[in-house]
Design brief:
mainly alpha, single chain, Serine Threonine Protein Phosphatase 5, Tetratricopeptide repeat, globular, 7 helices
């Protein structure tokens, strides 16, 4: 009722504009600690090549792949929830991620986010996903969006 009067309505609009313009410099993306240039997401780029996600994934070390698969077996949904060993899987995926196995990095990050088998540590999870992003793994970008 009172807000519908032209004088108050224009005052609220002016106030909202003043607040939003004052906050924009404080939220500048260039000041964020993890801001990085993402060429793939530039809407003004001249060229675009459509690729399958599998083609963009880096090759995997066979020893790391064996560790990764062993960790998957320990956390399989075919097992009863009480029979799943997230702690041992975290150890195996840590070893595999040290050999740049991106799947192990993403699974380990998920364990750190949930606190399953390891102490919950969001910062360490973000670092694991960032490492996979630097390897160019498309799924890492997707997981980072879900984390933040």
């Amino acid at each position: 009722m009172l807000l519908n009067t032209p004088k108050i309505s224009s005052w609220l609009t002016l106030f909202t504009f003043a607040i939003s313009t004052a906050l924009i410099p404080a939220c500048s993306l260039s000041r964020l600690p993890r801001n990085m240039s993402l060429k793939a997401f530039d809407p003004h780029r001249k060229e675009f090549t459509c690729n399958y996600e599998k083609a963009a994934e880096p090759p995997l070390n066979q020893e790391a792949e064996a560790l990764f698969r062993e960790g998957l077996a320990l956390t399989s949904f075919d097992l009863w929830p009480d029979d799943r060993d997230h702690k041992k899987a975290a150890i195996l995926w840590t070893k595999a991620s040290e050999k740049d196995h991106w799947g192990a990095m993403l699974n380990l990050a998920t364990l750190y986010l949930r606190g399953a088998g390891v102490e919950r540590d969001t910062e360490l999870a973000v670092q694991m996903v960032e490492k996979a992003m630097l390897l160019g793994v498309p799924r890492a970008f997707h997981l980072m969006v879900r984390i933040t």
